[in-house]
TrEMBL record, chains A, B:
SUPFAM superfamilies: DinB/YfiT-like putative metalloenzymes
Descriptive protein name: DinB-like domain-containing protein
Protein source organism: Paenibacillus flagellatus
Entry-linked InterPro entries: DinB-like (IPR024775), DinB/YfiT-like (IPR034660)
Residue ranges occupied by any DinB-like domain in the UniProt entry: 12-150
């Protein structure tokens, strides 16, 4: 089935509220745990999602629609959210994510009113030619990737607590750093 | 840090509402897609979570507290939810999961009022001796495993749509059947 923007929006608009429902009010034990040194905790993942809203998805969409393939869009620093000091509380981050995502979905609907625009092309700095619909699908799968990361990081906390059940729990089957 | 029942409950009580926020009202395209033949779609995963509430976690806890290691608890059929016909709508399943989970958390709090009970042991039919706290941690990680499965199944739908972004999207890096 061909890519349909309305189905992509169904996921994009649910992610922030889903994460708020799951994460708001959790103990620090859940929010601060990591899969190992140099990996992100849950709160840092939310910071990365906010950064993507600010500098990645919609800015790149606007860039493609404005410039086409004439020049590559600026690279996105996937670690820039870690530079922010001091760390904001998770509740504030979740709220910020919800607000900026809602604004970006409104912008998306305004910018891509017509299915033909899904075929417009731009120049990714590493990939070369990319289509608007590839960018939008990647935005959705990026949400799904980071929801998966959040639950994987949390599961890590109970790796030894589950005892022999670890062999039935797929999420624990990979090495912590994977 | 030693296992604390209150932290386990924080996750257990959030899972149903989180899934309802994420899944209720999604198009059939998202709810019906699979990772391949013989794998579960999103709706079947919710069926499995309901089945776990009915026949696995709390029933086993009660069994351990009643029988100790004197006899193994009955095996849990991980595919029993697939036998149910006809398939219920996802909204109804999500509601059912929420209701039965709330009841089970109340039962859990009633049964394990004292941290010493976390060390009580029972006999798993395959693993041998298991502790109450291992069962309860496994219940939490089981939720996390199936949230991860749900987003992985959904991501699969856009595997080709994302074009070159697939190399940056960790969730797509494994083979569909893994």
């Amino acid at each position: 089935m061909p890519f349909q923007i309305q189905e992509a929006i169904e996921v994009l608009e649910r992610t922030p509220q889903t994460l708020e429902t799951f994460l708001a009010g959790l103990s620090d034990g859940w929010l601060a745990c990591r899969e190992g040194e140099g990996t992100w905790n849950v709160s840092e993942v939310i910071g990365h999602l906010i950064e993507g809203e600010k500098s990645n998805w919609v800015p790149r969409l606007e860039f493609i629609l404005r410039e086409g393939e004439s020049k590559p869009f600026p690279a996105f620093d996937r670690h820039s959210h870690l530079k922010e000091e001091p760390e904001k509380p998770i509740g504030q981050k979740l709220h910020e994510f919800k607000t900026i995502r809602a604004r970006n979905i409104a912008k998306l609907q305004e910018l891509v009113g017509d299915a033909r625009q899904l075929e417009r092309t731009g120049m990714h700095p590493a990939f070369g030619t990319v289509k608007v619909r590839e960018l939008l699908s990647a935005w959705v799968v990026h949400d799904l990737t980071h929801i998966a990361q959040i639950v994987r990081v949390m599961a890590e906390r109970y790796r030894t607590d589950v005892g022999p059940w670890s062999q039935y729990l797929g999420i624990l089957k990979k090495a912590p750093s994977e």
